[in-house]
Structure formats: structure tokens, C-alpha cells
């Protein structure tokens, strides 16, 4: 427990008092009100840690009042220094100073960087923020747009101002420039009492984080810990009497807010000064100022208050009020602890060292039982470490196999997507025509190849290059800074380093302020109770969790893709068979329709032969129409069956083939016979021509030759069409075969993928099971370690008892020794007396 350090500073007189009444006299650390002729007024005599008279400089105030707080802040203690007093009493002068005599803030900044440079064994990260509370609203002085900020409180982060800019800084000059820039945004105003009166409370905040540079350093106790301290340098607005300041309008409103918040600060101080028993509720929440300063008032911070007073008699009443405030503040005690974020490894290390120390102590005595106990403890610890290493290895192997497996899955899905895109292409081909289809076929395979090379399913690279502590954290200054710490890891400059640094714990600076009684903070993840668990072990569990999460995500992705593939597959099932069922058959139907049309045309031509009485042709036609009817029936059946079930189309296609062949042969026969019969007819007509000529009229002859020509043309075109149809049918058959093959391969792939998905799910459930086991083991290890700690404490108690017993034995031995000596001496004396006597007797 540490008392708040309170000092009073008297500002030099600004104007000479016209009334020569009472005055304030400073003697060492006491200030008292004296009558003009020098008699002190006993009721108004106050003693403080320091009292600075009118001739004091900012340098002396800083050295005596604040320097220690600044040094402690560099070492990991929270610190707050603030100036309180009536308007124009010199608060801003004390905090900011002048060109020739810089105030507490610039001196603190310079000192911090000087100290940091001297601490060569640690690396530091400094962040600064500058805010004002104006008319009970919090404004960011570093970013003008950040106005009316809200105070939030969370379990993890404690009290914090959301959205406040935190600038990472590397040197004092940078900080001083920021302050200068911030000052421009601060609210000042002219009053009767101060030409440049602060109309707001300002809080300049520095967050100092540090970490030992060498984790192998000899100082095992501290090297692994990250220290985070918060230093607040506060310049309060001055209390004012409206009558004196002559405030009206805006100034009046400001004055009311200032006085109200100072009154609440006074209430908080009063409550805190009452002592913990009577204290009751502390109204920190009544104003933003007290809420923000909560850790500094009765919390975990070294705090100093400089109360500035105006020496003029006209301000005597205000000065009395200020001194009473200071007296009460003096009674407040804070519980200051260094803020360390200890990793579990560091905790374990500490315990090991403590055990070693205990062992060393015990070696002095002969307590073999205790010795054995300690040996057992060490063995247990070794056992845990071995177990942990084994787990580590197992986890590593599992991770590797899972990665491998996921890669394979991705490759497979890649291939499948290639196949599917190929099938899509085929579908397009059937829509756009055969010529382009070949092109598309080619493209489809190209796509498939590129997809199988892994372009689509490339594993995202999650690794972030690790940087140095300060350099890495420095990146965060460039980010939009809406809270001291990011809400998600994605906002952190370097997630990896941050995680490594804090072992999964997101350090919250504000929270450190409001945890007064916490000496050592271990920050495992939320579901783990603070305990002694080795760093690596914990890290492994974290890694496993992350891996599992990643795997789950990938599985989900795989599943999603799988279902997409299945959907596509379904479509392609309905597109390949159905494509053949719907689209290819449609095309085939069209072809058959054409074929039918052509066939009918041929028939109609042949009909003419029939009508001309060419009986042989009529015979051929009847045969052909039989074949045709059979063919079309077969085709129809084929399409119907094909639409119902694409797989049963094999037999039908053979039938079609057969029918087509027959048709072809028969058509050829018909055509040959027609040609031959035609030539016979022509010849007969030629033979008959002399007598017929006499019978036929010239016009009839002409007509016959025209119809003959037409017939020949028609026959030729029929021949052409037949060939075309033949070709078309064969292409369609080929298409049908290709689609069937593709369907089969797709189906196989789908089944394979399904199997693999099931296997993956199995793996995941196994992993979860293992994770559960690991968690259980971890919990057990935690319990065991805690038991060991308890045992160690018990041992310590025993050692104490042992020492006490030893000491008492030593004491009794000493008294026995003394007694023995005195008896010996007595005996000796008696012997000396008795010897002369005996000698005398002999004489
Ligand atoms: N110790 C000092 N030495 C020299 N000048 C001082 C000292 N203290 C205050 N002053 C001067 O007194 C005037 C008022 O001081 P300052 O503005 O610091 O008061 P304040 O308490 O901050 O007032 P307000 O609350 O109205 O802002 C300033 O001109 C300042 O330069």
C-alpha cells in the first residue's frame, strides 16, 4: 500500500494585494496562514510531502514530486501525476511549463526516453494519447474528428476510452510535437482571472511496454515477462467563482461543468480519504474525469498531486479549499504493483528457481525427507515435460498428416472441378454446334489441366513475417486507432508477433490499471484458470485449436465444394444422361425429324413412280416404308428409354446402328434398282421413240425429259441427304458414347469424394476427441501443478518450522553449553580452592 504523494505549489504573485491582511507562509513542507504581523493562524496550517514556494522552479517540482513516478513507470508501474487548483493558480504552468523552465510533461517525456536508452537489456514500445474532457465530453486532441468519445468497461480491457488515437512514438521530440499539435485543439478561453484559461481537463497518456531482450538472460525471473504501464499526466481545469471570473455565455457553461466535475473529484477524494472501512461506495461514475482517473485514485498506480495555489489574499478562501482537498488526498492509499504479463513458461521457470532455492536452503539442514520430497517434485516436473514433449510430437505429426490430406483433397477437388467444367463445355458444345464443340472440348481439357495445377484451390498463405518487437508493434500507429487495442486479430499490425509476445493474451493496458491487487498476471486464454502451465504446452494446445479451426474451415469449404460438385454432378447427371436425355435427344429428335422428312420426300418421289405404274419401285417403296417405320419406331423407343434412364441406352444404340445399317443398305439397293429401272425405261423409250414419236406430241417429249432430269436431281439430292444423315447419326452416336463415359467417370469421382469427405469427418471427430483428451490432460496437469505448488508451500512451512526447531535447539544447546561452562568454571574454582587447602594441610 502506498500513499498518494501530495505537494502544494505557491504561484508567484501576479498582482500586489491592495489589502495587507493575511498571507501564506511556507516553511519546509508546511504551509500556514499568517496574520500580517506574522502570527500563524493555527487552524490553517497544513503539512504535505512537499511544499514549493513562489521561487520554486518546475525542475525542482519535477525532481521531488514526479521523477520517481516516471522512473517507476519505465519499470512497469502505473503512474499518474496531476495538477489541481483554482483557476490561474499555475496548473498549466506546472504541467507544461515555459520555454525556459519546461514543466512536468516535457520533463517526463525526456526522462522516459533517457531511461529507455539506458535500459539496454530491454526493448520498449511507447504509445501516447492526448485527450480533453470539455463540458463533460471526451475529445481526442490528436485527432480533431474524434469527438464525444465514450468510456467503456469490459472484463478484459477494464476502463477505456473507445476510439482514442494512440500514436506509437520513438523519441521525445516526436512526443513533444504531438503535444504541441494537441494543444492547438485544446479549449482555452479568456476570463477575468486568466487570459488563457484552460476550459477543459486534459489527460496526456503514455503507455510503456517493455520486454527483456534476451530470453536466455540470467535474470530468469523477469526475462519472459512483458511489462505494461500507463502514465497519466493530467492538467485539470481550475475551479472558479463565477463572480470572480466574470464568466457568462459559453464561459459560464464551461465553468459550471468544470466546477461540477471538480466537485465530484472532491467527493471521490473525500470518500477515499475516509479509510476502507467507512468508505462505502466511491462515486467514480459520477463524472468522466473520476471514471478515467479511477485507477489513479485508490487503484493500482503511483500517484502524485500538485495542488497549486494563488498567494493573493483575495484568493484565500479558494486556497483554503485547495489545501483541504490536498489534505484529504494525502490520506488516500493506492495498491501499486508492477504490471507484468507473465507467460506460463516464465511462471514455470520461476517455480523451478524457487524450488531450487528451497532445495538449497534445505541442504543446510539434514532433512532428508524434505530433500526427497523436492526430488520427487523435480521428477514430476520432468515427467510433465516429457509428457508435454510427447504430446507436442503427436500433435506435430497429426498436423502434418492433416495438412497433407487437405492438400490431396484440394487437388482432387481441383481435378473434379476440371472434369465438371469439361462437362459444362460439352453441354455448351451440344448447344452451339459440332464444329465449335471440338474447340470447346479442347478448351475444357485445358481448363481442367490448369485447375488441376491448383490455381483455384490454392491454400491461403496465413503466415505473416515476424518482425522485431518494437518495429512490429510500431506498425499499429498507422492504423485507424479506434481503441487502445484491436477487437479482432485482423486489426493487429503483426498477429504472429503479438501472439508470440503475449502467448495468446491480448494485453489490455487499461485493464492493468484497474486490477490493483494483481502482482503477477498470467494470461492464458479465457477458459484456462491462471495456473502454472508450461508455455510450450499451452502454445501447443492453442496451435492445435487453431489447426482444428483451420481444418474445420477447410472441411466446411470442402463440404461446400463437395455439395456444389454434387449439385453440379446432379446437373451433369441430368445433363449427361439428361443432356442426352434432353438435349442430345432433342438434337437427335431433330435429326430424326429431318431424316423422317427426307425419308418422306424420298417416299413421295417414289410414290410418283408408283403412280406412273412402275411396280418394281412400288415394291421397293413398300419394303422401304416398312424399314423406315421400324427405324423410326426404334428411334422413338430409344429416346423414351433414354429419357427415363440414360444407362439403358447401350442396347438401343446398337439397335439403332443395326437399323441404320439396314436402312443404308436397303436405300442403296433401292437407288441402284431405281437407277437401273430408270435407264431401262429410258432405253425402252429410246427404242420405242420412232413409233412413239409419231404418237407423242413434241411437248410431251419435252415434258418427259424434264421430269427425268428432275427425278435424277431429286435422286442425287436424296443420296446427298442420306449421306448427311448417316454422318449425323454416327456423330450423335459418338457423342452419346463420350457423354456416357464422362458420366461414369463423374459418378466415380463423386463416390470417391464422398468417401473422402466421410473420412475427413471421421478425422475431424478424432481430432476433436484428441483435443478433448489433451484438454483433460492439460487440466490434470494444471491440477497437479497446483497441488505441487500447495505442497511446496507446505514444504516451506515445514522448513520454517524446522528452522524454528533448529533455532530453539541451538538456543537450548547454547544454554546447556553455558550451563556446562559455568559448572566447569565452578568446578575449576572449587578445585583451585581445595588444592591450596590440601597443600596447606601438607605444610
Ligand atoms: N510558478 C510560476 N512561475 C511563473 N509564472 C507562473 C507560475 N505559475 C503560474 N504562472 C503564470 O500565471 C498565469 C496563470 O497560470 P496558469 O495558466 O498555469 O494557471 P491555471 O491554473 O492553469 O489556470 P486555469 O485553470 O484558468 O487554466 C500564467 O500566466 C502563468 O504563466
TrEMBL record:
Q: Where is the composition biased (Basic and acidic residues)?
A: 561-570
Q: Which domain of life is it from?
A: Eukaryota
* Binding-site list for ATP: 85-92
* GO terms (BP aspect): attachment of spindle microtubules to kinetochore; membraneless organelle assembly; microtubule cytoskeleton organization; microtubule-based movement; mitotic cell cycle; positive regulation of phosphorylation; regulation of cell cycle phase transition; regulation of chromosome organization
Any GO MF annotation of the entry = kinetochore binding
Quick one: where's region Disordered? 561-591
Q: Domain Kinesin motor: where? A: 3-332
Identify the keywords attached in UniProt to this record, alphabetized: ATP-binding, Coiled coil, Microtubule, Motor protein, Nucleotide-binding
Q: Which residues form a coiled coil?
A: 348-408, 708-756
List GO terms (cellular component aspect).
Answer: condensed chromosome, centromeric region; microtubule
Per the similarity annotation, which family is this? Belongs to the TRAFAC class myosin-kinesin ATPase superfamily. Kinesin family. KIN-7 subfamily.
Q: Give the protein name, as stated in the record.
A: Kinesin-like protein
Q: Which organism is it from?
A: Acacia crassicarpa (northern wattle)
Amino acid at each position: 500500500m502506498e500513499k498518494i504523494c501530495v505537494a502544494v505549489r505557491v504561484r508567484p504573485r501576479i498582482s500586489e494585494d491592495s489589502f495587507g491582511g493575511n498571507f501564506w507562509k511556507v516553511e519546509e513542507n508546511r504551509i500556514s496562514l499568517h496574520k500580517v504581523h506574522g502570527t500563524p493562524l493555527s487552524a490553517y496550517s497544513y503539512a504535505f510531502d512537499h511544499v514549493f514556494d513562489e521561487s520554486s522552479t518546475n525542475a525542482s517540482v519535477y525532481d521531488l514530486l514526479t521523477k520517481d513516478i516516471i522512473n517507476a513507470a519505465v519499470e512497469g508501474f502505473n503512474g499518474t501525476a496531476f495538477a489541481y487548483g483554482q483557476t490561474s493558480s499555475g496548473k498549466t504552468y506546472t504541467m507544461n511549463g515555459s520555454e525556459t523552465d519546461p514543466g512536468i510533461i516535457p520533463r517526463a517525456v525526456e526522462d522516459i526516453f533517457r531511461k529507455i536508452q539506458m535500459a539496454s537489456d530491454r526493448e520498449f514500445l511507447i504509445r501516447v494519447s492526448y485527450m480533453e474532457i470539455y463540458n463533460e465530453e471526451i475529445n481526442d486532441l490528436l485527432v480533431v474528428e474524434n469527438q464525444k468519445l465514450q468510456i467503456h468497461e469490459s472484463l478484459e480491457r477494464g476502463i477505456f476510452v473507445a476510439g482514442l488515437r494512440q500514436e506509437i512514438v520513438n523519441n521525445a521530440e516526436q512526443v513533444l510535437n504531438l503535444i504541441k499539435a494537441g494543444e492547438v485543439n485544446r479549449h482555452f478561453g479568456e476570463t477575468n482571472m486568466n487570459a488563457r484559461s484552460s476550459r477543459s481537463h486534459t489527460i496526456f497518456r503514455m503507455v510503456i511496454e517493455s520486454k527483456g531482450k534476451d530470453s536466455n538472460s540470467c535474470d530468469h525471473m523477469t526475462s519472459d515477462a512483458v511489462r505494461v504501464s500507463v502514465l497519466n499526466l493530467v492538467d485539470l481545469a481550475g475551479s472558479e467563482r463565477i463572480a470572480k471570473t466574470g464568466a457568462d455565455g459559453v464561459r459560464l457553461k464551461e465553468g459550471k461543468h468544470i466546477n461540477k466535475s471538480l466537485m465530484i473529484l472532491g467527493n471521490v477524494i473525500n470518500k477515499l480519504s475516509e479509510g476502507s472501512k467507512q468508505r462505502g461506495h466511491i462515486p467514480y461514475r459520477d463524472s468522466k474525469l473520476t471514471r478515467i482517473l479511477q485507477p489513479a485514485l485508490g487503484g493500482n498506480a503511483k500517484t502524485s498531486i500538485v495542488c497549486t495555489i494563488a498567494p493573493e489574499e483575495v484568493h484565500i478562501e479558494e486556497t483554503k479549499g485547495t489545501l483541504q482537498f490536498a489534505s484529504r488526498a494525502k490520506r488516500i492509499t493506492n495498491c501499486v504493483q508492477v504490471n507484468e504479463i507473465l507467460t506460463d513458461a516464465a511462471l514455470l521457470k520461476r517455480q523451478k528457481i524457487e524450488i531450487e532455492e528451497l532445495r538449497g536452503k534445505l541442504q543446510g539442514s539434514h532433512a532428508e525427507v524434505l530433500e526427497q520430497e523436492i526430488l520427487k517434485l523435480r521428477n514430476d516436473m520432468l515427467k510433465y515435460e516429457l509428457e508435454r514433449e510427447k504430446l507436442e510430437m503427436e500433435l506435430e505429426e497429426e498436423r502434418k498428416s492433416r495438412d497433407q490430406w487437405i492438400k490431396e483433397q484440394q487437388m482432387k477437388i481441383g481435378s473434379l472441378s476440371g472434369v465438371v467444367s469439361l462437362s459444362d463445355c460439352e453441354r455448351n458444345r451440344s448447344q452451339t454446334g459440332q464444329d465449335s464443340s471440338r474447340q470447346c472440348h479442347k478448351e475444357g481439357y485445358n481448363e481442367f489441366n490448369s485447375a488441376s495445377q491448383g490455381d483455384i484451390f490454392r491454400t491461403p498463405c496465413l503466415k505473416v513475417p515476424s518482425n522485431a518487437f518494437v518495429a512490429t508493434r510500431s506498425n499499429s500507429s498507422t492504423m485507424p486507432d479506434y481503441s487502445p487495442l484491436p477487437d479482432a486479430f485482423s486489426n493487429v499490425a503483426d498477429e504472429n508477433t503479438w501472439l508470440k509476445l503475449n502467448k495468446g493474451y491480448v494485453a489490455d493496458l487499461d485493464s492493468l490499471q484497474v486490477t490493483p491487487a494483481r502482482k503477477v498476471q498470467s494470461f492464458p486464454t479465457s477458459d484456462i484458470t491462471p495456473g502454472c502451465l508450461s508455455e510450450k504446452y499451452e502454445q501447443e494446445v492453442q496451435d492445435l485449436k487453431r489447426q482444428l479451426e483451420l481444418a474445420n474451415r477447410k472441411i466446411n469449404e470442402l463440404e461446400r465444394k463437395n455439395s456444389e460438385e454434387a449439385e453440379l454432378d446432379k446437373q451433369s447427371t441430368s445433363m449427361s444422361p439428361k443432356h442426352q436425355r434432353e438435349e442430345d435427344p432433342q438434337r437427335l429428335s431433330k435429326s430424326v425429324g429431318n431424316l423422317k422428312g427426307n425419308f418422306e420426300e424420298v417416299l413421295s418421289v417414289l410414290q410418283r413412280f408408283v403412280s406412273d405404274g412402275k411396280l418394281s419401285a412400288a415394291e421397293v417403296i413398300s419394303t422401304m416404308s416398312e424399314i423406315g417405320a421400324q427405324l423410326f419406331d426404334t428411334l422413338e423407343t430409344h429416346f423414351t428409354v433414354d429419357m427415363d434412364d440414360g444407362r439403358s441406352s447401350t442396347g438401343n444404340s446398337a439397335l439403332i446402328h443395326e437399323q441404320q445399317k439396314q436402312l443404308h443398305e436397303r436405300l442403296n439397293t433401292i437407288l441402284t434398282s431405281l437407277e437401273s429401272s430408270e435407264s431401262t425405261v429410258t432405253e425402252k423409250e429410246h427404242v420405242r421413240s420412232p413409233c412413239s414419236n409419231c404418237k407423242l406430241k413434241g411437248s410431251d417429249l419435252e415434258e418427259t425429259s424434264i421430269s427425268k432430269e428432275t427425278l435424277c436431281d431429286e435422286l442425287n439430292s436424296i443420296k446427298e441427304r442420306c449421306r448427311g444423315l448417316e454422318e449425323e447419326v454416327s456423330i450423335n452416336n459418338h457423342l452419346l458414347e463420350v457423354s456416357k463415359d464422362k458420366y461414369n467417370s463423374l459418378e466415380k469421382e463423386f463416390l470417391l469424394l464422398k468417401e473422402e469427405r466421410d473420412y475427413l469427418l471421421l478425422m475431424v471427430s478424432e481430432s476433436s476427441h484428441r483435443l478433448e483428451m489433451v484438454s483433460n490432460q492439460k487440466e490434470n496437469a494444471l491440477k497437479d501443478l497446483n497441488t505441487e505448488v500447495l505442497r511446496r508451500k507446505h514444504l516451506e512451512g515445514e522448513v520454517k518450522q524446522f528452522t524454528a526447531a533448529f533455532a530453539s535447539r541451538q538456543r537450548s544447546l547454547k544454554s546447556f553449553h553455558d550451563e556446562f561452562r559455568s559448572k566447569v568454571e565452578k568446578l575449576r574454582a572449587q578445585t583451585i580452592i581445595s588444592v591450596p587447602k590440601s597443600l596447606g594441610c601438607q605444610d
